[in-house]
Amino acid sequence: MNPWIEGLVAISLLLGSLFALIGALGLYKLPDFYMRLHGPTKATTLGVGGMVVASMLYFSNQGNGLSLHELLITLFLFITAPVSAHMLAKAALQQKLRLSDKTRGRPWEQ
């Protein structure tokens, strides 16, 4: 395999795994639901996206051509993650979940 492609695959995997790790740490460390919602929806989405890009680069360079599967995974991931985060946030607003003192704003008191 071309060393440039190997380098791009390695960089994409490292960046993707770094974003996934940051998202997981955010999910673990942040104090309330609204802050925790950002971990899996923002950073982890970028992490999985980076890993899928690495997969596309690797397997398209192996002679199989560009796979539609990886493109569809990326498309569905970037569409469904914000929608599910929005639905979770709306459900949390309906339940009036407890907030941390660090969370700014009280949307249901307006």
UniProtKB/TrEMBL annotation:
The chain crosses the membrane at residues 6-28, 40-59, 71-89. Keywords: Membrane, Transmembrane, Transmembrane helix. GO terms for molecular function: sodium:proton antiporter activity. The keyword Phosphoprotein does not apply. It comes from the Bacteria. The keyword Transmembrane applies. Pfam families: PhaG_MnhG_YufB. InterPro entries: PhaG_MnhG_YufB. This is Na+/H+ antiporter subunit G.
